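User: Before I run my own analysis I want an independent prediction to cross-check against. Here's the chain; please return only the structure tokens and, at the end, one sentence I can use as a sanity check.
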Amino acid sequence: MNWQPWCDMFVSYCAERTGNAAAVGKFAYCPSHVEFFKSRGQWYGSQAQARAGDVVFFHNGDGVAYHVGIALADAEPGTSVKTVEGNTSSGTAGSQNNGDGVYYRTRPRSMILGFGRPAFATLAGDTPAPASPGRWTIKRGQTLSAIAALCGTTVSALLSLNPGIDHPDRITEGQELTVPATAKPAPAKPSSPAPDTPRRDQDEPSVGRVSISGHEYGPGAYGPHITALGKALVDKGFGRHYAEGPGPRWSQADQRNYADFQRSLGFTGVDADGIPGPVSLRKLLAPAPTKPTQPQEPALAKPAQPKPAKPADPPEKAKPAPADPLGEGLWTMEKNADGSITFRPVKPTSKKDAVRAELARTVPELVTAA
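Assistant: Structure tokens:
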């Protein structure tokens, strides 16, 4: 991004691609990201126990975050932390905060400023609500920050209500916590759907990728089946969130459009979270029913119309065949009463008659007048 250091952009990218953007945040500037976790009560000091998934911030001894990565594994207080970091170097020889790639690193506590602990929604054993109002029984794998997020409160509020907890990371499975009275349990699942409501889209609420008929759907899913799903959404009129055409990698636009489609089917709550379920996916990908074509009656053949008889050509006036017995082209001309002229070959009796006949042929009016 404008050739600026991209270590925190890498963390934000990983969160976005795994569906955890809301929990991790979207930042490019490390100090602002630190304040994000502090404002949520999710900040832990440099010597605290590290947890896999923690956002690890580093400093140069001045107390200002200048680099960031992601913890890959739990680490006891005071021990080194295994990380994956963007925009760093593979070893100590290169730049640690503006390197050339993404690398696995092991960092000493002296470099660590602190940890941001996102309230991931996919921790093992998460339960949607307290067992009873005001009390919470800790399940295996849960953290105090995750419980705070599920109860709609903060870690600080939980610590103030539970003075027996001397450290946010020191909680045990089966331990009971007091939670704020404002924490509302999730609505109970209906035992059976009403007759006029659709079946559940998922057997259980989905929080990430799902596998249906051998294909994965949801954050991180990739393949031509994702493109096909997007095109089917567009074909059914649910493509308003696409800035550009559907592609093979699952995106937030896919999830938002799919949620719109689920709501159109009557699903609500966790069944309209935008993650495909077998019921909605079957409805989306089912081919549209074809309308039966009405058999068309054959058109009645029109009776052949008899062609009108072609009128016979009027007989041409018979032209007198020029009989020229002497071969001298001698004619006589007779003017008829209707003004027409009739030529008749003549046989001259003498040379004088022949000349007269020739004159009559050439200038008949003059000859006639004469």
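Sanity check: The chain has four domains: 7-116, 121-186, 215-284, 331-369.
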